[in-house]
Amino acid sequence: MVRAGLTAERVVAAAADLADSIGFDKVTISALARGFGVKDASLYSHVRNLGDLRTRVALLAAEEFIDRIEAAVAGRAGKDALVAFADTYRAFALECPGRYAATQLRIDPAIAAEAPAYHRTLRTTAAMLRAYGLTEPDLTDAVRLLRSTFHGFTALEADGGFEAPRPVQTSWERAVEGLHFLLSNWAGATQGEVSPEASP
Length: 200
Description:
Structural class: mainly alpha
Largest sheet: none
Helix content: 55-70%
């Protein structure tokens, strides 16, 4: 019998919290059921299997991620928007490691195509870069550069990979400043549509 009050939304939210605590890759149906004090079978009334649960966590995390980014960049443009975007990205990755890991999950393209969070992320990222005068194919290249820089930096920071005495915050600020300079001087922008890879 399913415990009263247990819903798909509660299950997914609890899975996201658990991911932040123990790691997204360590979340299982059994671990989640133990947290609710129910049998594994009770959760299968709300999620089909572990893959379905992880996809739902990824979609939830993507919504929370873009909510933060949109709020941070609202009313900003150029360098101010880039800094806000970058700082929000880093904060989410470091404060919500399990949720952030979930946003890196490759999910079914058909599901992604119907997910509002992915469309919002694409629009927000593209708008920020177009403020620098970028269009395709430069837009795709710039998106890949930003994503690689933000993801690589935060992954190394989370793993304690920066051991030099220089403050990590200073290096982060210099990195974002460098990206701003590069984007401001990007040559060869052409007209085109935004790439489907335009996501943080």
